[in-house]
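Researcher: Next entry in the queue.
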Amino acid sequence: MVNLRKGYPKWIRAAALALLAVASGCAANVAVEGNVTFKGEPVSEGAISFEAPDGSTPTFGGRIENGTYRIPDLPPEAAGTRLVRITASRKTGRKLPAGPPFPPSMMIDEIEAVPTRYNHKSTTTVELRKGVPNRFDFSLEGDAPR
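Model: Structure for this entry, 146 residues:
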């Protein structure tokens, strides 16, 4: 181990410590990715979020597209136990009047396409770790809300 106190000017020691702090901070970011299927089929569009079970830190999330999600650069505070919520909608085919603030027109009704136990009633947790790949695949089963 190098002793920075002997033989180096103060400014070199300070620069070395600053560089070490910056380098270790970059390595401590959190990335997460994986696949999401429902009844064996990729979820075409949706969202996934990772939140602290006690609500103590911010929620982080991203889009699900063609059955995959990738959130490449979460801050270090994203690490730890996270409650997972997965949402996806499907069109019902019914047309409804668009309400304010939209101009008078019709819109297509959409409902949640995955069971509530994966979104607002979720109990699924994962452990996000700093500086290592985090990969979580989710195979959703059950009946979607009607």
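Model: Confidence is low (pLDDT under 50) at residues 1-5, 10-27.
Researcher: Noted, moving on.
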